[in-house]
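Q: Sequence in, structure out?
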Amino acid sequence: MKSATQFPDLDTSRISISAHYTGYIWYKHGLSAAGFATGTGRLANAALAPINAFLRLVAGADIDIFLLQRHLVIDHHVCELIEQHGVEQIVELASGLSPRGYRIKQQYPHIRYIEGDLPQMAARKHELLERVGLAAGHDVVECNILQEDGPTSIAAVLAGLNPSKPTLIITEGLINYFDLPVIRSVWARMAQGLKQFPQGYYITDLYPDFVDHPSYRYVKMAQKLVGVFTRGQWPLHYSDDTAIRNGFTEDGFDQVDVLDPASFYGQLNLPEVKIKTLVRIIRCKASR
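A: Exactly. Output:
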C-alpha cells in the first residue's frame, strides 16, 4: 500500500469549499446554530437548488437527503458509543462547519471533544465556536490527515488524549475526496493509533461504486458535479458491503459494521426515499 508521502500534490484545502454548503444544510434543517451558516453556504445552496430539484424528479432523491441520512445515522452511533460503550474522548477530523461537536458538548458535557482541520478552517471554526459558546473540554486544533508524522498528524492529535479512556474518531464528508490507496493509508494509521486506547472506534460515511443501482447514471452525474464544485476528483470506493468490510479489516480494524441508512427507517427521524440508498456508514473497532 502506498503511503501518503507518495502523494505530494494532493490538496486537502478544496474540501473546505463543500464545508460551507454542508454547514448551511445542517442549519437549514435545524441541526445547527445560526453561526454555522455562512454566506458562501447560502449561495451554494441556491446554486444547487435547480440540480437538487432535477435529481428529486428523475432519481427520487437529492444531495441533501443523503447528507442528512449520513449525518443523523452517524449522530445516532456516536451517542450509542458514549452511552453504551463508555467513549469519553472524540476526535472529529476535517470537521469543517459541522455542528456535531457543539451539539455533543451540550448533550454530554463530560466528553472531551477535539476538532481537527487545516489551519484556515481550524481558525475559522475556533472563532465561530467562541461566538456561539465554546465549552470547556472542546478544542480545535490544526490537523492534516495526510501527514504521517509531525505536529499536525493524526498521531499527534491522539497523543494529546488520555490513553486510559475509550476514544472515537469521526470523519464525515471526507474520504471520497481521495483515491482509495491514499485514504487506506490514512485508515491504517487511524487503526494503529486507536489501539493505544482500551477501546478505539472509528465512524465514517462512504459512497460506494454501486454500478447496479437503478439511478447509477445520475450518481455519476452528481459525482462529476461534486468534482467541479470542489475543483478535484470525487472517487467512489468499493462495489458492495462485503468489499467495504474486507477493506477496513485489511487496514487494521478488528470489527467492521457496514450500515445502510435504510435499516434505520422508522427508528430515526431520517428522510426516507423509495430508491436504494447511496451512502454507507462504517463503524469500526480497533483493539489492542
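Confidence is low (pLDDT under 50) at residues 1-12.
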